[in-house]
Amino acid sequence: MDVLLDFNEEAMTADVLLDGPDLSTDEGLKTAIVVSLFTDRRAPASFQLPAGDDDPRGFWGDVAPANDVEGDETGSHLWLLGREKETEETRTRAVAYCRTALAWIVEDGVAERVDVEGEWVGRGRLGLKITVHRPATTPAAYSFAWDTAGETA
Q: How much is the pLDDT for 72?
């Protein structure tokens, strides 16, 4: 069970919620998916950074000694698509970045398969549908709208 992170699509931020005096909890994978998609993964030197940006970003926890799996990184490269035009190429790259960010769910044996779909749902807004197929359970679907003009949390 994880602390529930509530993703605010308008502000492109995530926050913890309270359940009375306690923190709300997440028995599913929503919080893990929010962290995986909307934390900025470090851009490799081979990636082109957005215009005017020279920071490859990255999650500070990836450099901690506890991260003993080589190449295991948190987050996605969605942030690299900030201010991109609404094209099929941008949509395709966003879906690919999401698949990469969520690959750990299958690699760690949490699910058998993770499906990612993306479609433009409004000006500068890409709708993301994530379906997680776990053994012996009904697939769980999660939907988010990512603002390509804003920043990810």
A: 82
